[in-house]
Amino acid sequence: MARARLRRDHFIDLRPLRTPAFARMWAGSTLAGLGSQLTTVAVMLQVYEITHDSFAVAMIAFAGLVPMIVAGLYGGTLADAFDRRVVALAAASVTFGSTALLAALTWAHLETVWWLYAISVVNAAASSIVMAARAAIVPRLIPRDQLPAASALQGISYGLMVMAGPALAGVLVAFAGYAWTYTVDVILMTSLFLGLWTLPSVRPEGELIRPGLKSLADGWAFLKKASNIRLQYILDITAMTFGQPLALFPAVGAVLLGGGPITTGVLTAAVAIGAFLSSLFSGPIGRVRHHGVGIERAIQVYGLSILAFGLVLAAGALGWFAPADVGPDSPNVVLIAVAVLFLAVSGAADNVSAIYRSTMMQAAVPDSIRGRLQGIFIVVVAGGPRIGALYAGTLATLTALWFPPVLGGIVIVALVGVLVRMNPRFRAYDAEHPEP
Description:
Growth Hormone, Chain: A; mainly alpha; globular; 17 helices
C-alpha cells in the first residue's frame, strides 16, 4: 500500500483539472498551441525552402522580437486594468485572423518571404498578450498550493503541443503541402475561444489602474525591488540566448544529419518529449520548497545537454556513422537518435526550471500588479528564444552548425553558477513563504 502511494506521488498532480474553468482553459490552450506549432514549423521550413539560408530562418523569430516586447508589456498593463478574460479573447481574435490570412494567401499561391515574416510578427505580438492575460488568470482559479501542479500541467500541454506539432507539421508539409498545414492550425485555434469564452469575469483585485506608461513604470519599479523575480528573468534569458538551437534544425535535417523536414520535426519534438515526461513525473517537483536552487540546477543541466547536442553535430560534420550520401532520403540515423536523447534531456530540464519560475511568479507577486509582471515574464520567456535564434543563426553562418550549441552550453553552465552564487537570497527562496 505504501509502495503504491509512493508511485502515485511521483506522478503529476491533477487537482487543478477538478476546477472546470481551469480545465477548459487548459484544454483549449493545448489544442490551439498544437495548431500554432504546425504553423511555426511550417513557416520555418517554407522560408528555408525559398532562401536555403539558416540566417533567414533565424530572422523569422528575431523580426517579431520588438513587436512582441511592446505587445507583451502593454498587454500586461491591459490585464491589470480590464477584465483579463476580455483582453485574452481580443488578442486571440487577432492571432486567428492573421493565421487565416496566411492560409488564404498560401492557397492562392500569393505567399512570399515578406508575408511569412509579417504574419509571424503579428502572431508573436498577439500571442504574447494572450499568454500574459491567461497566466495572470490562473492564480484566481485555483488555490496557491496547486500552482506548481498547474505549471506542471502547462509542461504537459507544451509537451503535447511540441511533441506532436512539429512531427505532424513535417509530415503535413511533406505529403499535403503548406496550405493544408496552415488550414489545420485555423481549425484547431477555434478551441482557444471556447476555453476563454467560458471563463468567468476576471477583473484585477484592488484599485484599477489606467493602462499606459505610468502603470508600466510602476511594474518596473516593483521588479527593481523584487530581486528573486528579477534574477529568474536573467537566468532564463541566459539559457535561451545561448542554448536555443531551434533555428539550426532545418539545416541540420537538410545538409548535416539528413532526413529533411521529418528530421526537423523529430528534433523539435524531442525537446517536447523531455518536457512531457518531466511533467508526467512531476510529483516530487511540487514538494520542493527551495525553488531558487531548483532553477539553478535545472538550467545548468539544460546547458550541459545543449553542449552535448552540439558535440553530436560536430560528429556529424566529421562524417561519423554517416551513410554514403547524407540528405533528405539518407539520414544519419545513429547521430539523429543521440541528438534526440540530449534534446529530450534539455526539454526536461527547461520544463523543471519553468515550473519553479512560473510558480514563483504567480505565488510571490500581488494580484494587482500580476498582469504587468506576467507581461514582462512573457517577454522574457518568448523573447529569449528569439535572441537565441539570432545568436545561433548568425554564429552558424560565420562558423559551423555545431559551434553555437557547444559554446552556448559552456556559457550557460558557467554564467548561471556565478549569478546564483552572487545572490544568496535567491538560493534561500522558500515556497512556503514566497517573497518576490
